[in-house]
Task: structure prediction
Amino acid sequence: MQFKDIVGQTVMANRLTEIIDSGRVSHTQLFLGETASGSLAMAIAYAQYLNCEHRQHYGEAGPDGLRADSCGECPSCKKYQQLSHSDLHLYFPYAATATVKGTSISAADFQSEFREFLNAKHQCGTLDEWYEFMQIENKQGQIRERDADDIVRTLGMKSYEGGNKVVIIWMAEKMTVQPANKILKSLEEPTPNTLIILVAESSEKMLSTIISRTQLVKIPSLRENGRTASPEFRNLYVTWMRQLFKLNMASLSAWVDTMHDKSREVQKQFLLFAQESIRDSFLRNNAGLPSHIDFGDEKFNASFPTMITERNIEKINDAINDAIFAVERNAYGKIVFMELSFRISKALKKR
Result:
């Protein structure tokens, strides 16, 4: 996972790469924030950057404002991209399934499934989605004592490949008291060149003794950042809407190709941003409410909201929902975005 693939977290990504570049990496950190906002993805991208052999530094010319990122091409990055690096250790809540049962199960029994889930969700899958993937929707997952024993054992070993060893504990609030107490000393005194990241959505259910041993990294939610935080999304949206009104097939095809090349999570977040933008335009045009989205184009800001009316907003909203559904199920991007474009173009012309 590279920082450029995480939507709406440029400011936090720049802060994290600056910390690593300055050599001020705390050995135990708590990434606190919603998984859907990229907390786990940020942890993985952070670890990948830490171990990258050829870090890329952009200054002010980086993609979407990034100051730096991992190269994505060195052997370490390629392994991180597939979550297969020997020095990346993942722990997470789980429960017995139809195929994996018994009282002695641990996170080790679900590693391949968890990696498959993360790759499918671009590291932004929620806990409920993980439970659904495991088919344990009616059970509560936990991080257990056997996992704590494994964490302690892992933290006591040297790295396999000579770089930094990384332990990531996802949904750390699902760790009960006994395993949490077992890892306290290891969190405080890990072996050299070890990074421990606890990823949690809420610290309220975590032991205070655990929290006190971590450096807090608060991952802002996309609602706090505002999806308008991405200049790339603003530009893509303005370009798209203008093309849909004119229906220039050559430029539209090029735009669809651009969207097709992006990760599915970025595609989904863009569609959510588009949906929010359409709603904002409707409220401004029909209810007289002030707009909270600035597209960086005064002419577009002033004229486009008049295109969204009671006659077409429902059709546009339905079209975007269908596209989101298709993206989540790995539909072919070019077909999804071209069909969506035709549906919205037709709706806009019947305002």
